[in-house]
Amino acid sequence: MKKTAITDHEIHPLIAQRWSPLAFDSKLVEPEKLAQLFEAARWSASCFNDQPWVFIVATKDDTVNYQKMLDCLVPFNVSWAQVAPVLGLVIAQKNFKHNGKPNAWGEYDAGQSVATLLLQATALDLVAHQMGGFDAEKAIATFNIPETARPMAAIAIGYAGETSNLPTDLQERENAPRDRYPLSSFVFTGEWGNSASFT
User: Degrees (nearest 5) of the Cα angle 128, 156, 16?
Assistant: First the structure.
Protein backbone atom coordinates (compact mmCIF):
# COMPACT_ATOMS: atom_id res chain seq x y z
CA MET A 1 0.00 0.00 0.00
CA LYS A 2 1.26 3.46 -0.90
CA LYS A 3 -0.01 6.70 0.65
CA THR A 4 1.74 9.51 -1.18
CA ALA A 5 1.22 12.85 0.55
CA ILE A 6 -1.03 15.42 -1.09
CA THR A 7 1.14 18.50 -0.58
CA ASP A 8 0.46 22.23 -0.83
CA HIS A 9 3.84 22.76 -2.50
CA GLU A 10 5.97 20.48 -4.64
CA ILE A 11 8.45 18.34 -2.69
CA HIS A 12 10.81 15.52 -3.63
CA PRO A 13 8.90 12.28 -4.34
CA LEU A 14 10.89 10.38 -1.69
CA ILE A 15 9.58 12.75 0.97
CA ALA A 16 6.02 12.59 -0.33
CA GLN A 17 6.08 8.80 -0.50
CA ARG A 18 7.58 8.23 2.97
CA TRP A 19 4.99 7.24 5.54
CA SER A 20 4.69 5.14 8.68
CA PRO A 21 2.45 2.13 8.08
CA LEU A 22 1.37 -0.40 10.66
CA ALA A 23 0.99 -3.23 8.14
CA PHE A 24 4.23 -5.07 7.35
CA ASP A 25 4.99 -8.05 5.17
CA SER A 26 6.91 -10.83 6.92
CA LYS A 27 9.45 -11.04 4.07
CA LEU A 28 12.99 -10.63 5.38
CA VAL A 29 14.94 -7.54 4.34
CA GLU A 30 18.04 -8.38 2.33
CA PRO A 31 21.29 -7.77 4.28
CA GLU A 32 22.62 -5.47 1.54
CA LYS A 33 19.52 -3.27 1.87
CA LEU A 34 19.92 -3.12 5.64
CA ALA A 35 23.52 -2.06 5.14
CA GLN A 36 22.37 0.69 2.77
CA LEU A 37 19.91 2.02 5.36
CA PHE A 38 22.55 2.39 8.03
CA GLU A 39 25.08 3.72 5.55
CA ALA A 40 22.57 6.50 4.83
CA ALA A 41 22.24 7.16 8.56
CA ARG A 42 26.04 7.21 8.82
CA TRP A 43 26.22 10.15 6.41
CA SER A 44 23.70 12.29 8.26
CA ALA A 45 24.73 15.73 9.52
CA SER A 46 25.76 16.18 13.16
CA CYS A 47 27.24 18.82 15.44
CA PHE A 48 31.08 18.68 15.24
CA ASN A 49 30.55 15.63 13.00
CA ASP A 50 30.29 13.73 16.28
CA GLN A 51 27.83 11.16 14.89
CA PRO A 52 26.21 10.51 18.29
CA TRP A 53 23.75 7.87 17.07
CA VAL A 54 23.77 4.17 17.87
CA PHE A 55 21.36 1.56 16.53
CA ILE A 56 20.69 -1.82 18.09
CA VAL A 57 19.01 -4.00 15.45
CA ALA A 58 17.37 -7.42 15.50
CA THR A 59 16.14 -9.32 12.46
CA LYS A 60 13.39 -11.91 12.65
CA ASP A 61 15.74 -14.73 11.67
CA ASP A 62 17.71 -13.95 14.86
CA THR A 63 14.88 -15.22 17.03
CA VAL A 64 16.48 -14.63 20.43
CA ASN A 65 17.41 -10.98 19.91
CA TYR A 66 14.22 -10.27 17.97
CA GLN A 67 12.12 -11.50 20.90
CA LYS A 68 14.21 -9.43 23.31
CA MET A 69 13.50 -6.36 21.17
CA LEU A 70 9.79 -7.19 20.89
CA ASP A 71 9.61 -7.56 24.67
CA CYS A 72 10.69 -3.92 25.05
CA LEU A 73 7.67 -2.63 23.12
CA VAL A 74 4.36 -1.66 24.73
CA PRO A 75 1.55 -4.16 24.02
CA PHE A 76 -0.17 -1.98 21.43
CA ASN A 77 2.99 -1.79 19.34
CA VAL A 78 3.62 -5.51 19.74
CA SER A 79 0.18 -6.14 18.18
CA TRP A 80 1.34 -4.91 14.77
CA ALA A 81 5.15 -4.67 14.94
CA GLN A 82 5.58 -8.39 15.58
CA VAL A 83 5.14 -8.96 11.84
CA ALA A 84 7.94 -6.57 10.84
CA PRO A 85 11.13 -8.44 9.90
CA VAL A 86 13.43 -5.86 11.51
CA LEU A 87 13.12 -4.15 14.88
CA GLY A 88 15.57 -1.70 16.34
CA LEU A 89 16.38 0.93 18.90
CA VAL A 90 17.60 4.44 18.13
CA ILE A 91 20.02 5.66 20.79
CA ALA A 92 21.67 9.04 21.33
CA GLN A 93 25.03 9.31 23.06
CA LYS A 94 24.95 12.03 25.72
CA ASN A 95 28.53 13.29 25.49
CA PHE A 96 30.80 14.45 22.69
CA LYS A 97 33.42 11.91 21.66
CA HIS A 98 36.17 14.48 21.15
CA ASN A 99 36.06 16.07 24.60
CA GLY A 100 33.60 14.11 26.77
CA LYS A 101 31.46 17.19 27.43
CA PRO A 102 27.64 17.02 27.34
CA ASN A 103 26.28 17.12 23.80
CA ALA A 104 23.12 19.23 23.85
CA TRP A 105 22.50 18.36 20.20
CA GLY A 106 23.00 14.59 20.39
CA GLU A 107 19.29 13.75 20.46
CA TYR A 108 18.59 16.17 17.62
CA ASP A 109 21.35 14.59 15.55
CA ALA A 110 20.17 11.05 16.29
CA GLY A 111 16.78 12.11 14.95
CA GLN A 112 18.41 13.50 11.83
CA SER A 113 20.16 10.18 11.22
CA VAL A 114 16.83 8.37 11.33
CA ALA A 115 15.23 10.86 8.94
CA THR A 116 18.05 10.11 6.49
CA LEU A 117 17.58 6.37 7.02
CA LEU A 118 13.84 6.71 6.32
CA LEU A 119 14.42 8.40 2.98
CA GLN A 120 16.87 5.66 1.99
CA ALA A 121 14.27 3.09 3.03
CA THR A 122 11.69 4.75 0.79
CA ALA A 123 14.15 4.72 -2.11
CA LEU A 124 14.58 0.95 -1.57
CA ASP A 125 10.79 0.36 -1.49
CA LEU A 126 10.94 -0.33 2.24
CA VAL A 127 8.82 1.21 4.97
CA ALA A 128 9.55 2.05 8.60
CA HIS A 129 7.55 3.04 11.63
CA GLN A 130 9.14 4.82 14.58
CA MET A 131 7.73 4.25 18.08
CA GLY A 132 7.84 6.14 21.32
CA GLY A 133 5.90 3.28 22.89
CA PHE A 134 8.69 1.19 24.36
CA ASP A 135 10.16 0.59 27.81
CA ALA A 136 13.44 2.49 27.84
CA GLU A 137 14.55 1.10 31.21
CA LYS A 138 13.93 -2.44 30.04
CA ALA A 139 15.83 -1.73 26.82
CA ILE A 140 18.78 -0.37 28.82
CA ALA A 141 18.90 -3.49 30.98
CA THR A 142 18.24 -5.95 28.14
CA PHE A 143 20.85 -4.59 25.76
CA ASN A 144 23.42 -3.37 28.30
CA ILE A 145 23.13 0.26 27.16
CA PRO A 146 25.56 2.45 29.16
CA GLU A 147 24.53 5.45 31.25
CA THR A 148 26.25 7.66 28.68
CA ALA A 149 23.54 6.87 26.11
CA ARG A 150 19.77 7.37 25.98
CA PRO A 151 17.31 5.22 24.01
CA MET A 152 15.15 7.63 22.02
CA ALA A 153 12.82 5.46 19.97
CA ALA A 154 12.11 1.99 18.68
CA ILE A 155 11.70 1.37 14.96
CA ALA A 156 10.15 -1.32 12.78
CA ILE A 157 11.50 -1.77 9.24
CA GLY A 158 10.42 -3.98 6.37
CA TYR A 159 8.29 -4.26 3.27
CA ALA A 160 4.74 -2.90 3.29
CA GLY A 161 2.07 -5.47 4.02
CA GLU A 162 -1.64 -5.77 3.39
CA THR A 163 -3.89 -3.61 5.55
CA SER A 164 -6.36 -6.49 5.70
CA ASN A 165 -3.82 -8.46 7.77
CA LEU A 166 -4.01 -5.94 10.61
CA PRO A 167 -6.37 -6.33 13.56
CA THR A 168 -9.75 -4.88 12.60
CA ASP A 169 -9.45 -1.89 14.92
CA LEU A 170 -6.20 -0.81 13.22
CA GLN A 171 -7.39 -1.07 9.63
CA GLU A 172 -9.36 2.18 9.82
CA ARG A 173 -6.33 4.01 11.17
CA GLU A 174 -4.14 2.59 8.40
CA ASN A 175 -6.57 3.71 5.69
CA ALA A 176 -7.18 7.21 7.11
CA PRO A 177 -5.97 10.15 4.98
CA ARG A 178 -2.60 11.63 5.81
CA ASP A 179 -2.56 15.23 7.01
CA ARG A 180 -0.20 17.90 8.32
CA TYR A 181 -0.53 21.33 9.91
CA PRO A 182 -0.27 24.22 7.40
CA LEU A 183 3.04 26.05 7.00
CA SER A 184 1.49 29.21 8.45
CA SER A 185 1.10 27.46 11.81
CA PHE A 186 4.82 26.84 12.34
CA VAL A 187 6.91 28.97 9.95
CA PHE A 188 7.20 32.43 11.49
CA THR A 189 9.03 35.68 10.81
CA GLY A 190 9.72 38.65 13.07
CA GLU A 191 8.26 37.01 16.17
CA TRP A 192 6.54 33.87 17.39
CA GLY A 193 3.13 33.42 15.83
CA ASN A 194 3.67 35.83 12.92
CA SER A 195 3.41 33.61 9.86
CA ALA A 196 6.03 34.10 7.16
CA SER A 197 4.66 35.73 4.01
CA PHE A 198 5.42 32.77 1.75
CA THR A 199 3.25 30.41 3.79
Answer: 10
